[in-house]
Amino acid sequence: MFVKVTILVKVIVFLVFFVQCDCAPKKKYSELKKCDIGQLADEIASYDAVVKDIMDYVFSGPFKNQTYDELAKFVDKFGARPSGSDVLEQSIDYMIKLTRDEDINDIVTEELEVPEWIRGEEQITMLEPRKKNIQLLGLGKSVSTPEEGITAEVIVVSNFEELAATPDNVVKGKIVLFDPVFTTYSETVVHRSQGAARAAEKGAVASLVRSITPFSINSPHTGSQSYEENITKIPTAAITLEDSDLIRRMYNRGEKVVLNIKMFSELNNKTSRNTLIDLKGRELPEKLVIVSGHIDSWDVGQGAMDDGGGMFISWAAPVILKRLNLRPKRTIRTIFWTAEELGLIGAKAYEEKHRNESHNINFIMESDEGTFAPLGLEVAGNQEARCIIAEILKLFESINASTLVEDDSPGSDIAVIINTGVPGASLYNANEKYFWFHHTEGDTMNVEDPKELDLGAAFWTAVAYIIADLSIDIPR
Ligand SMILES: [Zn+2]
Questions:
Q1: How many whole angstroms from 369 Cα to the centroid of ligand 1?
Q2: CA of 216 to the centre of ligand 1 (A)
Q3: Sign of the CA dihedral running 28, 34, 38, 39
Q4: Which among 296, 261, 297 is positioned nearest to 121, based on CA atoms?
Q5: DSSP state for residue 221 in the 8-state scheme
Q6: I need a surface site. Which of 91, 130, 201, 358 has the fewest CB within 10 A?
Q7: What's the gap in Å between 287 CA and the centre of ligand 1?
Q8: Catalytic option among 340, 366, 391, 452
């Protein structure tokens, strides 16, 4: 009995600290202890002229609007690029050619196995208390319903604690709707990613989640979810804030809400590729500063924001440096991760394949939370590393991008590598509206802005260049 309780406590601790990981509270650099990096500060200040050259080239020179224009051409040509699809592979080939056209030829792709989840017909009809179509998007890897669908009564809970407190016989045979109010993404998303497993454990026949967003014009938001071993896989989908709140009001009034859910999909194994583009360093080519974004997207929208923009500012870095004939001491490696959306699959494969050389990663960067106006970086690393990055960020005061946010596990794909002890950063940007569009049909070029992409591309390029060219490695 004691042993069992201990295991239970461990499971709860795991759930609270890992699954619900809201990570460390974010702190601005000004709240940190004072840094003293000695003469390195003078060395960093000497890059001011290079930063200006890069900014001039992007803000008013030949690269003005180029990031936006190339991103638009790309997403208009391919649209959504889901994991495992032929169109994703064609878009990878396109990016390789686009890079070779810039006379950058150190490009390799690394194959890996990825899931392909194909969404079929999806429909939810409210049958009681009145007939109504409910907008939905099935969640990643959801299983199908039987041909005739699942017809059942709904129970509404706001969180896992409420579900746990509901007797099993009340949940059994029902559809569970989770309607958490959006606080932060990392706090709220657990209801999407773990909802089906938690509901099935209590005997539910399907689960729904209020879309993980603070704002809606009746748009459902899809996303990944994970079934668990030895728990029945039940169909699971996101519905809109409007329909979720409607069902909640009816439920609170004691009205019986009955839905018919029809969802069909298939799941296959396919091969995809991570893409590695190197601008070789002139003195220490084996040492890497990585800039990255993911090339796959959800199957809805165009994947312009998630993560076309992040991929394109990472593409722009070696291109701008090559055009300006700026070759840093270390290699700048651009990575387009594949299959991020179905579980960081490309990043995990890269980490495994390159584990023995991870000491060569000097710094790793990722943009996957929007490419709105840059504000600075969310940085993981020791105190000395953060002090060095903070000093570099001072060179970006003119574009208001000097803020360092402490975050021990920034980014999505790169967190896989940062968690092994590699210092790195995610783009900190003015992304208050990011989750309005995230994983919806609304993720299109209309979210993107040419000036913001120019700011992002110049900032990303200059930061990567300075780190790759410094006289010292970023300490760990
Ligand atoms: Zn993303």
A1: 7
A2: 19
A3: positive
A4: 261
A5: -
A6: 130
A7: 26
A8: 340
- pLDDT 10s digits, 194-229: 999 999 999 999 999 999 999 999 999 999 999 999
pTM for the whole structure: 0.93
Q: How far apart are CA 271 and CA 162, in angstroms?
A: 41
Q: Which residues contact 226 (CB under 8 A, 6 or more apart)?
A: 141, 193, 194, 197, 343
Q: Is 340 a catalytic residue?
A: yes
| Topology adopted by domain 117-267 | Glucose Oxidase; domain 1 (3.50.30)
Q: Please determine, for residue 281, whether its predicted confidence score (pLDDT) is greater than 60.
A: yes
Q: DSSP readout, 408-457?
A: SS-SSTTHHHHTTT--EEEEEE--TTHHHHTTSTT-SGGG--HHHHHHHH
Spatial separation of the C-alpha atoms in residues 215 and 206, rounded to whole Å: 25
- Quick: pLDDT tens for 241-261: 999 999 999 999 999 999 999
Beta strand 258-279 pairing with 330-337: antiparallel
| Mean pLDDT calculated for residue range 386-396 | 98
Q: Report d(CA 220, CA 136) in Å as an integer.
A: 6
Q: CATH: 3.30.450.20, 3.40.50.2000, 3.40.50.2300, 3.40.630.10. Which one for 23-106+280-469? A: 3.40.630.10
Q: How far apart are CA 332 and CA 280, in angstroms?
A: 7
Do you find a cis peptide bond into 307, omega within 30 degrees of 0?
yes
- 269 pairs with which residues across the strands? 115
Instruction: Compute, in angstroms, the gap from residue 306 CA to the centroid of ligand 1.
Output: 4
Q: How far is CA 58 from the centre of its chain?
A: 26
Indicate the pairing of strand 374-380 with strand 236-239: unpaired
Q: Can you give the residue ranges of every domain in the chain?
A: 23-106+280-469, 117-267
Helix/strand/coil for 343:
coil
